[in-house]
Amino acid sequence: MKTPILIALVALVSGTAIAETFVYFGTYTRGESEGIYRSTMDPETGELSDPELAAEVVNPSFVAVHPDSTTLYAVSEIKEFEGREEGVVSAYAIGEKGELTLLNRLGTGGSGPCHVSLDAAGRTVLVANYSGGSVASFPVKSDGSLGERTALHAHAGRGGPGKEEAKPLAHSIMPHPSGARACSADKGLDAVLIYELNGESGKLSVNDPPMARLPDGTAPRHVTFHPSQPFAYVNLERTLELAALRYDDATGNLELIEIESTLDPGAEAKGSTAEALVHPSGKWVYVSNRGPNSIAVFAIDPASGEITPVERESTRGEIPRNFGITPDGKFVVAANQKTNNVAVLRVDEKTGALEPTGHGLEVPSPVCVRFVER
Predict the structure, then answer these.
(1) If exposure means fewest CB atoms within 10 Å of the residue's CB, which of 83, 130, 263, 347 is most exposed?
(2) What was the pLDDT predicted at 300?
C-alpha cells in the first residue's frame, strides 16, 4: 500500500498538488474494536493505508466532521453516563497527521445515541438518541469543544405495526443545507420530525408543520438532502425502499413524491436498509442494503426529484451500515459491520454506477465512514 509519505513524494516529483485524505471509521466495541480508527486514502486510486486506532472510546457508532476539518464529533451508543440514563457525545481535535485529541464530552440527554451531524456553518452539533427517542443540540465553541446542551426534544406517539414500534426511536437528525431547519427520521413513529434551527443559539424548536408522515410500518431511518434542489430522500428500513420528498424552504413541509424499491425486480424483501446519501453532484442517491449486502444507485431527476434505479452493487462484505462518499465524488467507501471490512468502490462519472476497485481494509465492526481533506 502507498503510505502518506509516498503519496507526497509522487506529488512533489510530478509537480501536482494532491490533497491528503484521512478516512475515519466509527465502530462498535463489542468485539475487537477499541474505538475510532483512521486510515489515509490515495485520492487517485482509492487505496487505503492500514488502519490505526485514532481514539479509544466505547461504541463510537457514528461520527461527524466539522466543515473546517479541524474537529471530529462522535456519539457513544451507550445507555448510561455518570449515573444518568443517557449516552455521550465527544469532541476531538484533529491533528496534522489525523490524530484525535479529546476536547470534551457531554451527556446527550437520552440513551443509545446513534447519529450525529453538524449544520453547514459548523456552529451546532445535533444528536439523535435512538432508544431514548429524542434529539438534542449543542453549540460549538471557538476551540471546537461542545457547549452545554441548548435543546432536548422527546418524540411522542407510535407508528404502524412492527416489533419495535412501541415507542419513538429517533434514528437520525440531519440539518438542511440552508441551516434553517433539521429533520429527524423516527423509526418508531413512521415519520420525519421537522425542527427549526437557530444558528446563533444552536437551539432547536418544533416546526410548523411538526412532521411528515410516511406509510405505516416502513420505519424511516436516515434523511439526506439534495445539495441545491428542494428534494429530500429517506431510506425506509423495514420495507427496503427509498422515499423521495419535496422540501418547502418557506415552511419546512415535506411532501411525498414517490417510493421506490432498493431491490432487484421480483426480489424478496429480506433484510433492511441502513444509509442514504445524495452524491455531491446532486445527480444520484445511494442506499445501503443489509441482507442483500449491496448499495442501490438511483438517478435523480433535477426538475421533479423523482428517482430511477441505475443498479445494485455488492459491498464486498456483509451487513453494510453507513458508507461515505469522498468530497470529490469519485469513491464510495462502504462499512461492512458483520465481516469486519470496508470496501472502496469507484463512482462512474457519467452514470453514477459503482465499480469495485479491489481496495479495502479489515476494520473491526465498522459502522460509519467520514473523510477529512488536508
Answers:
(1) 83
(2) 98
Task: For residue 292, give its domain range.
Answer: 218-312
Whether pLDDT at 13 is above 80: no
> Distance (Å, rounded) from C-alpha 296 to C-alpha 265?
12
Q: Are 316 and 336 in contact (CB under 8 A)?
A: yes
Q: Which three cell numbers stand for residue 65?
A: 466532521
Neighbours of 65 (CB within 10 A): 20
Average pLDDT over residues 47-52: 98
Distance CA 264, CA 266 (A): 6
CB-based contacts of 205: which residues, under 8 Å, 6+ apart? 151, 195, 196, 198
90 and 237, same domain (yes or no): no
Q: Length of the chain in residues, anyone? A: 374
Helix (H), strand (E) at residue 275? strand 272-278
In this structure, the answer to whether residues 183 and 320 fall within a common structural domain is no
CA atoms lying within 13 Å on the CB side of residue 71: 23
pLDDT tens for 326-342 read 999 999 999 999 999 99
CATH number of the domain residue 135 falls in: 2.130.10.10
Q: Give residue for cell 427549526.
A: 196
Task: Identify which of 238, 323, 318, 328 has the alpha carbon closest to the alpha carbon of residue 285.
Answer: 323
Given CA atoms 66, 71, 74, 80 in this order, what sign does their dihedral have? negative
**212 and 248 part of one domain:** no
The answer, yes or no, to whether residue 192 has pLDDT greater than 90, is: yes
Q: Domain count for the chain, please give it.
A: 3
Q: Are 279 and 332 in contact, with CB atoms under 8 Å apart?
A: no
Same domain, residue pair 192 and 295: no
User: Is the domain of 66 the same as that of 197?
Assistant: yes
